[in-house]
Design a protein that fits this description.
mainly alpha; 7 helices; 69% helix
């Protein structure tokens, strides 16, 4: 991602941020798709190769950020811990009562579900540290501005992915 697009993501607000973030995470997922390791390099049926394990972490983190970006409130209000239990309880009751969750349910409980998807992405970014250097992430997101957490997580994922792709290209040249 060039510096101008990074600045656009960090500096924009409201609906402009939503459009920019959605576009950038979808472009990221396209790049991840295009970087899929060949099936012959995936590993055995019992254990995935290190390259495939990393690629799967990028897929999961990308999906989680894609879902989370649709749940960030356009006003980017602070995510308060006082609202988390109420939203989490409503979400859990929906799952128990209907055995199903839709995007509408994610939206109605966005204070909790946005954090769920962001934490899922952050978990996967941190798991990539077993394979490569990963930019640091803040320790928690409970009372954070979700847009800022999303930006931080996406930019860390993107930087980590650039290293993965560069390493893959150089090892393919050596082969």
């Amino acid at each position: 991602m060039d510096e101008e697009r990074r600045r656009e993501l960090v500096d924009s607000q409201g609906l402009s941020w939503l459009v920019s973030a959605r576009n950038q995470v979808q472009l990221f997922m396209l790049k991840v798709h295009e970087s899929a390791p060949p099936s012959s390099e995936a590993g055995t049926t019992t254990e995935a190769s290190p390259e495939l394990r990393q690629w799967l972490l990028f897929v999961g983190a990308g999906f989680s950020l894609w879902r989370a970006v649709f749940l960030v409130d356009p006003k980017d209000v602070d995510r308060q811990t006082s609202d988390l239990q109420e939203n989490a309880t409503a979400f859990l009751e929906k799952v128990i009562q209907t055995n199903a969750v839709t995007f509408g349910d994610d939206r109605s409980c966005a204070t909790w579900s946005s954090g769920y998807y962001l934490n899922n992405a952050r978990y996967r970014v941190k798991a990539l540290a077993a394979f490569r250097e990963v930019p640091p992430l803040r320790p928690g997101i409970a009372n954070a501005r979700i847009r800022e957490v999303w930006n931080e997580t996406f930019l860390a994922l993107l930087d980590t992915f650039h290293g993965f792709v560069s390493e893959g290209k150089s090892s393919k040249r050596m082969a």
